[in-house]
């Protein structure tokens, strides 16, 4: 029984590693009250990581206000794993002139 459990645990770990191996981290920098790049393309499972170089906090908030709302502290980071395909437009709640877009494909 112990060998079966160990084999199942190893198989599970390999499957998880294989599933996450294809995922990418897409970096967006915030500086001077701007998202850069403002438009990114991702695949389902990819992570968008915002790095805030400004001295004030920002958010990455979905235009629909329900999909995501990521707080990005001053000189900090925030992230989001994208799931569904489609276009996700976002902005900063604190500075609404800051805008970005994530285009997500199935694979």
Structure commentary:
The chain is 19% helix and 43% strand. It has one domain: Cupredoxins -  blue copper proteins (Immunoglobulin-like). The model is unreliable at 11-18 (pLDDT under 50). Strand 8 (86-91) and strand 9 form a beta hairpin. It has 107 residues and is an alpha+beta fold. The chain is built from 1 helix and 9 strands; from the N terminus they run αβββββββββ.
Using DSSP, what is the number of strands? 9
The average pLDDT score comes to 87
Task: Please summarize the sheet with the most strands.
Answer: 5 strands, mixed
Could you name the CATH class? Mainly Beta
Rg over alpha carbons: 17 Å
CATH H-tier superfamily:
Cupredoxins -  blue copper proteins
Distance between the termini: 38 Å
Main sheet: which strands, in order across? 3-9-8-5-6
Which architecture per CATH? Answer: Sandwich
- What percent of the residues sit in helical stretches (DSSP H or I)? 10-25%
Please mark out the parts with pLDDT under 50 across 5 or more consecutive residues, or reply none.
11-18
Find the CATH topology.
Immunoglobulin-like
The count of domains is 1
- Total DSSP helices: 1
Shape: globular
Into which percentage range does the β-strand content fall? Answer: 35-45%
